[in-house]
Write a structure and sequence with these properties.
The structure is a single chain. It is built from 32 helices and 5 strands. By secondary structure, the protein is mainly alpha-helical. α3 runs antiparallel to α7 (188-215) and α25 runs antiparallel to α27. The radius of gyration is 37 Å and the shape is elongated. Component of the eukaryotic translation initiation factor 3 (eIF-3) complex. GO terms for molecular function: translation initiation factor activity. It is found in: Cytoplasm.
Length: 839
């Protein structure tokens, strides 16, 4: 012991960097910590027991003996002249020793003893768990299967319980203990000190146990019993009725069911796929992050910011700068992250999984892996008992980080496809026994579609491809195949039976939306929620392909006019409305597009201030600007401003007011006898449509593989040019509709000849224009019904055009509600001023 103390004193005066270079077992404080804590706990326990015994001796003295530490006052105090008491306890209630003993026994000792007996199991379990950290202790079974354990984790549950009981004993010491001093007995003071010492000793025990559970026991994992076991399918429930999981599927689920054998490894492969390390370039998409987290705010921050962990991260970052990226080097904070994430997934602790996934992963990426990938899966696999399913999830995060911050190579793009194949096959052909946050499940589908889009864009740029890249494209021609992507998404929808679940929810049988897709009965939410988000993924893929009708048909089971699971994750909310609105625009369902764009833009307008510190804030703003551009296009084709909220309209006018004025311009100056001026204004509007569409449209893709036998050319812009051509063709067809709409709003009846003269066209052209107006203002919805988008309705009676008078329904509700709120605020201010002036 003397040697350890000497080492501690010597290390206390060491330079900081030299002390940090010591191994953990060489640090004297680590060796002194446990003996010191054991001694302190023992001392406190002895003090509590001794005080309890003394107080019991005072309460129940032996027959014929005096109460210890109680000095009897032979004479009662007499009142002094002037009415003042001459005793030491001025104004106190005078009780006999027996009365004070009964009071102490019934009011203080017995209730405190009951609370202690109730909480002793949690105190003992907490001490044992904290002392044995980081080894998992069997005392965690004290809180197993309880609600607290299932939601927060066993260690966190013990921490919370010990904190609660520490607060309770502290309140007892402050409130009940002080009452003894007011009773005026000779035994009041000794009983007061006995109770206070015992109560505050328990506060220290419970509080200290909670402190060390929070600081030390966070890395508990059962390494001793499970180090040699392969838990490859521990997250999969055994189910004799389900598809049998063969050893081959346990090792590596192939893609035979949909696209043939695995693309990068043979079926008899024994090792996990490795990655090709190549120089990494900073990508322009480094700021492309997944959009926000779930609407529910997660308050707790995972404690990776302790001093030791911070110094370790600095050393790891310095090492990477000096040596370069080493896929097998795992910093201590990453080890802790992987171990915790694995443990929480096994425990179905959705709260902690979400916090680690959304906060800790981003923090570590920013701190350690700004310009490099995370450690390879082979480097962390032994920290998670070689669990195959967890390795698939880790690789999914690994590739997402790679795409977000770096430029992936072709081999890594194909590796990511292979990993998604294996992961989705596990979900489809096994009974998954884990719960994951909706944010993570949405990111899986979102990233899956994004990487498909990115691969198609990459493959279409053939002009500068090397011979090695062309050879890989030839060899793995099924990687990111459009049929494979669609098959996976559709398979998730069908296998999850999510369409039937949503139908049953309308009948009140299911509560999928009410629970945000989570299964609180102990089941899994993975397949159901993946199937739900896959419908949104199908909408997005079909929009990228230009098949808007099929995309909206895939989304039809989700009622976007109501709140749903898709609104619980802001990323899915924005992606759903953006693609739904764009598809509606291309199908001429302008009213549907305007209505949904208005709702999502109003939502972002009211809530974007809460996302300013989020890494996805820039992405939210970008989609916000794109949807304002799409809304401007919709309103130029279908000027129904009554569908737009005042706040959204004000923002729209500020951003695109001048351009919208040019798109809807039709007057004598622009369209008079001077044809050149009219053409100039038409060309200007045409250019504005081109600009807005190019800015706001998705990045369309050509899914077909290139022809390697022909000269290699870039065709990555072909799909965009085709969609732009179709859109501008629609604009050309509606050029004269602006003028016709302008005059039809003014007149209730007008002859064909007169209107033709105003528009400077002949009557046959006018008839064709009016028929075009009827056609362009009507569309077919998802149910096959014809819907009207017209803001002006009319019919032709012989040579007269008769406009149907349809008075718009004025909405006063919102205006009155806003004024009521303002009036209440003014009344509250007046009342406050009156109160202040009265005081």
């Amino acid at each position: 012991m003397a040697m350890i103390i000497g080492d501690a004193l010597r290390q206390a005066f060491m330079p900081k960097r030299e002390y940090e270079s010591l191994r953990e077992e060489e640090k004297a404080w680590s060796r002194l910590q446990r003996p010191f804590l054991v001694s302190a706990v023992s001392l406190i326990c002895v003090a509590v027991i001794v005080c309890a015994v003394i107080s019991l001796k005072i309460v129940s003295p032996a027959v014929g003996s005096r109460r210890p530490f109680c000095s009897d006052r032979r004479l009662l105090p007499l009142p002094m002249k002037g009415g003042r008491d001459a005793d030491l306890f001025a104004g106190a209630f005078y009780l006999t020793d027996q009365e004070i003993a009964d009071y102490y026994w019934m009011v203080l000792f017995v209730p405190s003893l009951i609370i202690f007996l109730v909480s002793f199991a949690y105190l003992a379990a907490g001490i044992a768990v904290a002392y044995s950290a980081p080894t998992r202790h069997s005392c965690l079974t004290v809180v197993e299967n309880s609600y607290c354990a299932s939601r927060r984790g066993g260690v966190r549950c013990l921490y919370i319980l010990n904190i609660i009981f520490a607060i309770i004993f502290g309140l007892l010491a402050l409130l009940l203990g002080s009452t003894l001093l007011t009773l005026g007995s000779s035994c009041s003071v000794p009983l007061f000190w006995c109770y206070e010492i015992a109560a505050w000793g328990l506060v220290i025990l419970y509080g200290g146990t909670a402190f060390f559970l929070r600081r030390k026991a966070a890395v508990i994992i059962d390494e001793g019993d499970q180090g040699s076991r392969n838990l490859g399918l521990e997250m999969l429930e055994a189910n004799t009725l389900a598809v049998a999981v063969t050893p081959d599927v346990e090792r590596r689920v192939t893609f035979k069911s949909w696209m043939g054998s695995s693309l990068l490894s043979s079926d008899d492969e024994d090792e996990l796929d490795t990655f090709v390390d190549a120089p990494y370039r900073t990508n322009a998409s480094a700021n492309r992050q997944r959009v926000y987290s779930e609407s529910r705010a997660m308050a707790a921050n995972y404690e990776y910011d302790e001093a030791a962990g911070h110094y370790d991260d600095q050393a790891a970052a310095l090492r990477q700068q000096e040596v370069g990226y080493d896929p097998n080097f795992v910093p201590d904070s990453v080890k802790s992250f992987v171990v915790h994430l694995y443990r929480h997934i096994r425990e179905k602790n959705v709260y902690e999984i979400h916090q680690m996934y959304e906060t800790s992963f981003q923090t570590l990426s920013e701190r350690l892996f700004k310009d490099t990938p995370w450690p390879s899966v082979d480097a962390v696999v032994h920290y998670v008992d070689n669990d195959h399913v967890f390795c698939l999830l880790y690789r999914e995060m690994w590739f997402r980080h790679l795409y977000a911050r770096l430029s992936p190579t072709l081999k890594q793009r194909i590796d990511s496809w292979d990993n998604y194949c294996s992961l989705f096959q596990v979900v489809l052909h096994g009974v998954v026994n884990m719960q994951l946050p909706n944010q993570w499940l949405w990111d899986m589908v979102d990233e899956f579609v994004y990487q498909f889009q990115s691969f198609c864009q990459y493959r279409a740029k053939m002009k500068n491809k090397t011979e090695q890249e062309i050879a890989l494209l030839r060899q793995f021609d099924q990687a990111w195949n459009v049929y494979g992507v669609l098959n996976f998404l559709q398979a998730l929808v069908e296998k999850s039976a999510i369409i039937q679940i949503l139908e049953q929810e309308k009948q009140g049988i299911e509560q999928f939306t009410a629970t945000d897709g989570y299964d609180y009965s102990g089941g899994s939410n993975v397949l159901k929620v993946l199937g739900y988000f896959s419908m949104i993924g199908l909408l997005r893929v079909h929009c990228l392909l230009g098949d808007y009708h099929t995309g909206l048909k895939c989304l039809h089971p989700i009622d976007i006019s109501q709140q749903g699971v898709y609104t619980s994750v802001i990323g899915s909310h924005i992606a759903t409305i953006y693609h739904y609105g764009f598809a509606s625009l291309m199908l001429r369902r302008y009213v549907d597009g305007i209505r949904e764009f208005n709702k999502i833009l109003l939502y972002i307008y009211k809530t974007k201030q809460y996302h300013q510190k989020s890494p996805q804030y820039e992405q939210i703003l970008k989609k916000n600007e794109q949807m304002y551009a799409l809304l401007a296009i919709c309103l130029s084709f279908c000027p129904q401003m009554k569908l737009v909220d005042e706040a959204v309209n004000a923002q729209l006018r500020e951003k695109y007011g001048e351009k919208m004025g040019k798109l809807q311009r039709y007057d004598d100056e622009a369209y008079g006898d001077k044809l050149s001026r009219r053409q100039r204004y038409a060309d200007e509007a045409f250019g504005i449509y081109d600009e807005l569409f190019s800015y706001a449209c998705p990045k369309f893709i050509t899914p077909s593989a290139p022809s390697f036998d022909e000269p290699l050319v870039n065709y990555n812009q072909d799909a965009y040019r085709l969609q732009l051509k179709l859109f501008l063709s629609e604009v050309r067809q509606q050029e004269l509709l602006v003028g016709a709409r302008t005059f039809l709003k003014v007149y209730s009846t007008i002859s064909l000849g007169k209107l033709a003269n105003y528009l400077d066209v002949d009557e046959s052209t006018l008839r064709m224009t009016l028929m075009t107006y009827k056609h362009k203002t009507h569309a077919v919805d998802s149910d096959g019904k014809i819907i009207s988008n017209a803001d002006v309705d009319f019919y032709i009676d012989d040579d007269m055009i008769r406009v149907v008078n349809s008075k718009p329904v004025k909405r006063y509700g919102d205006f009155f509600l806003r004024q009521i709120v303002k009036l209440e605020g003014v009344i509250n201010d007046v009342d406050r001023i009156k109160v202040e002036s009265a005081n």
